[in-house]
Design brief:
about 350 residues; about 25% helix; seven-stranded antiparallel β-sheet; alpha+beta; 17 strands; six-stranded antiparallel β-sheet; globular; 7 helices
């Protein structure tokens, strides 16, 4: 029952046709009971690609990647599924291992499909795997122990695909995340129609929004103090918001960028990550003595003020005034300004990288 409640991410794949700069996006708002997350770079070995990925801080051997991209511009993430498995196989929760294999060996979406076909069965997974590559391709793979169903981004009428914690091909009305997916689609819709979706939209708006589609009310700037933490995209169990921004077809894959906010997303600072010697900022790496990332720990300290009630069912109630208030001193309001500058600086660095590649 615990895993059903906490391994419940929200995600999207966006075609370059729907983004502001023409580059595809892969987004994951992570929910897990492992609230200490880090970013690490894994060196290439003979026969494998170099990559960077999101890990649990407790995974000191970096065995299970929960989202990442490699030197070929291939990127992957997952969301847990709870309406697909129909066997008695007890092997499970191997999604991070599958994604590690994909980052090591896959260059394209087709490579990942071939990997799923070739890996020993049962896979020990029940997941939506989302992938993009440097050739403009993208897909979700609704995957279980012995089979998968592929949803190709090219077949999406809107150029946007979303998944939470149920498979479209799974048992009807089972699984989780139906309301969260509708929240996401409602927040995306104005930007889909104008093809102006950006990484910033995901990390600064959707991952920090308290819009509730079933009630059809946005509590974000409502002035309320207490909210019940139920079916919003950011939740007590949220631990990271990450967007991988791909490249234009023909563009150097070294320009692939991962925009990262660690810790409870409404309280997180955004940093750009690249696959080069200094590409992972120290604040995102497990540099502290306990293996934690400094920026993750800072966000979690803020989170304690957002969820201050420790007794009884206190973790179900959030103090919205700590995030948004009339004085403009809420954590979201302060961090939005800081993160806007982080994006500005990140794109300036990217532009310099592009110019350097042309020399």
């Amino acid at each position: 029952m615990l895993s059903n409640d906490v391994y419940s991410c929200t995600s999207a794949i966006v075609s370059g046709d729907r983004t502001k700069n023409g580059r595809p996006l892969l987004w994951k708002h992570r929910d897990t009971n492992e609230e200490n997350n880090v970013i690490d770079r894994i060196a290439a070995t003979p026969g494998t690609f170099e990559y960077v990925a999101l890990y649990n801080a407790s995974d000191s051997l970096r065995r299970e990647a929960w989202m990442g991209f490699n030197s070929e511009g291939f990127a992957i993430m997952n969301t847990a599924v709870y309406n697909l498995k129909d066997d008695t196989v007890t092997i499970m929760d191997k999604e991070g291992l599958v994604m590690t294999e994909a980052l090591k060996y896959c260059k394209t979406v087709d490579d990942f499909e071939n990997l799923l076909k070739s890996m020993p069965k049962p896979l020990g997974v029940e997941a939506n795997f989302g992938v993009i590559d440097a050739y403009g391709n993208g897909a979700y793979f609704e995957t279980c122990n012995y089979e998968y169903v592929k949803f190709d981004l090219k077949d999406s009428a809107t150029g946007v695909m979303t998944r939470t914690n149920y498979a479209y091909t799974g048992r009807i009305d089972e699984g989780k995340g139906y309301i969260r997916e509708q929240n996401e689609l409602a927040l995306l819709e104005p930007y889909m129609t104008t093809s102006e979706i950006t990484p910033e939209l995901f990390t600064e708006t959707i991952s920090r929004s308290f819009y509730h589609s079933l009630i059809d009310k946005d509590f974000t700037y409502s002035g309320k103090k207490w909210l019940i933490d139920q079916d919003f995209i950011p939740r007590y169990s949220s631990t990271a918001t990450v967007v991988i921004e791909g490249v234009l077809p023909g563009e150097d894959s070294s320009l692939t960028t991962m925009w990262v906010g660690l810790g409870y997303p409404p309280c997180s600072e955004i940093n750009a990550v690249w696959l080069d010697d200094n590409g992972v900022p120290d604040g995102l790496r497990g540099t502290l003595s306990n293996g934690h990332a400094p920026l993750c720990d800072s966000a979690l300290i803020r989170k304690r003020e957002v969820f201050p009630i420790l007794r009884g069912s206190g973790s179900h109630y959030l103090d919205l005034s700590e995030l948004y208030n009339a004085e403009g001193s809420g954590y979201c309001q302060v961090l939005l300004k800081k993160n806007r500058e982080a994006y500005k600086h990140g794109y300036e660095v990217l532009e310099k990288k592009r110019k350097d590649l042309l020399k």
